[in-house]
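Thread: Newbie trying to understand structure tokens

Hi all, I'm a second-year student working on a class project, and my supervisor (Dr. K.) asked me to get a predicted structure for one chain before our next meeting. I've only ever worked with sequences, so writing a 3D structure as a token string is new to me. If someone could post the tokens and maybe explain what I'm looking at, I'd be very grateful. Here's the chain:
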Amino acid sequence: MESRTLLHASLTLLILFTSGIGGHIENGSHLKMDQALLIFHNQLTEEVHASYTSDYCYKCLFQHLVTVKPNNNNASAIISTKFTLTVQVESQTRNATFCRWSQTYEEGGHYSIWIYTLDANNCSCTQIVDRRPNNAYLPILVAALLLAVIALLFVVIPYIYRRRCTSKFIKTICCQGPQHSEENEESHASETAHGAVQAKPTRLLSLDTFRGFSLTVMVFVNYGGGGYWFFQHAPWNGLTVADLVMPWFVFVIGTSVVLAFSSMQRRGVSRLQLLRKITWRTVVLLLLGFCFLNYSPKDGPLSWSWLRIPGVLQRLGFTYFVLSLLQTFWGQKEIPLTAYNWWNPVQDILLYWPQWLIIILLETLWLCLTFLMPVPNCPTGYLGAGGIGDNGLYPNCTGGAAGYIDRWMFGDNMYRYPTCKEMYRTTQPFDPEGVLGTINSIVIGFLGMQYNWWNPVQDILLYWPQWLIIILLETLWLCLTFLMPVPNCPTGYLGAGGIGDNGLYPNCTGGAAGYIDRWMFGDNMYRYPTCKEMYRTTQPFDPEGVLGTINSIVIGFLGMQAGKIIIFYKKMNIQILCRFLVWTVILGISAAILSKCTRDGGFIPVNKNLWSLSYIMCMGCLSFLLLGGMFFVVDIKGWWGGQPFIYPGMNSIFVYVGHSLLGFYFPFSWEMRFQQSHWEWLFQSLWGTALWLLIAYLLYRKKFFLKI
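---
Reply by user tm_fold:
Sure, no problem. This is what the structure looks like when written as tokens:
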């Protein structure tokens, strides 16, 4: 054993020495961002085969990396550094695995893997770093620091300016006479009052801020997000920053529909006018998606052969259409607001005085019969058990008037074993569900009527037709997803296909969702799904497909619930925040249960491509949390005006369409020359996003708002 250890140490020293004096690393000069170089040195007398798989790829087959010839030959391969890789080296002739390891390689690094013999039956691998990798996260750390400094300056500079103006105002008051001071004070007060009237917000600023924040992040990730994998969509299951923004936007659409339509309905806008507006806006969104965002001049002449029928604006338009119909036909119920009267605190009693009169008469009848009715051989008003109780003076008076009435009405047809029989040795039957007891049963039931059990959820139950439609839609999604048979695929399959799931279902990408889209749209759908590179899929799959649109409507409906809460509990900010928190907890727990808090192992994994049920629960949770936080900071406390996100939030259609059409043109982007790291790409992404924020701000100053 000691000789084997000594041999292993000697070989390691030899490898370190040889790697220090040379190496086959000419491919290192071609490395780009998120790439590293692996150099395999084979000191065996047989050919070896190196393969790999990504740990982010669920149950994926190992893919060939490089074949290394025997007798001190080497071969190099460029690998991705985005995710953890599992690499294995195996023999071609002996069908044996020599070594296997998992590691997250770093950008720009050069790594040598030496394959050598330990003894006659065992081989081993040793890894050495030939060139230290770059710090891939340094650009984003610097960018985050600069953005924090800029944000701090935007807070500090106005504060200093206000302090300076305040000091000038104080100096003016101190240096001038009383008459001028009073005039200035009166003038300043009138200006302040006028400014307050002018600045009174007519919109829910937190909603515009949330919409603008979602849109800003969307622009940033659509411009590449600096090339970082967490600013790009997840390959299949899982969640990244890029997966958050569209559900947020859909959520805001739902909230806006409720607030806008409620306002229009209060102004007397007819249902026919609303339907015209809904139809017009939906058609415009669909046409924008079909004719502009699915086409770019770089694609060449417009052709039906490559036209994508589903799309982002198409989904947003259809979702808006359904949500608007729900609000138009079944969303006009509101809590009536009446003028204040002295009896408002007890209006729930006074409005129902006939009921209360009947209850009072019933209770008076009970009191009179119980305490005034004479009972033979018993004291009036007796409430005892009889038998041996009360010193055995009234053995046949069990229950007083209540027992006497029941025995007179029912005879022996009543309960013969009252609870007092054993202890009090009673001989008279007594029924706890007798006549007089029933009177008080009615009274306590009436008291229960004074509290409507549905009061805490009236913003839900008043709109039960909407909830019924949403539940039916979600049931349809579940049935199609988990029960619909798909040729050559297991029923209820949710995987990416390709090399995933041990390569058993290569053509089953997306299961029923993908099958329905391919049947409906053929080749006129998205050809480059996020799973294509990692899972080596060959089937097209559209993340804006038919089944996903059902759950898009559901998360939009959750946004409608936020709007109803704001309307129902207007000027009751604590109630609004509490209900937002309740929804956050309910949706968060539901998402955790469905996904089992894992990426791939849950009942229904979190999946943006499929818009799975757990995904919309998770996004609904985050949406309520963010909107509630912004509502508290922006609308309640006024600590933040929503800048700069409020500007694109008030011009969302213009910014979204504009950034999609002009994203490939200067000055929003350019041909990058430094592709070895994230520096230039991150700068380009931030630059393009900042330009659209600036454009939105200038349009806001000019009071130009593109509306459909």
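A couple of things are worth pointing out once you decode it. The first strand starts at residue 35 and ends at 42. The chain has 22 helices and eight strands. Feel free to ask follow-ups in this thread.
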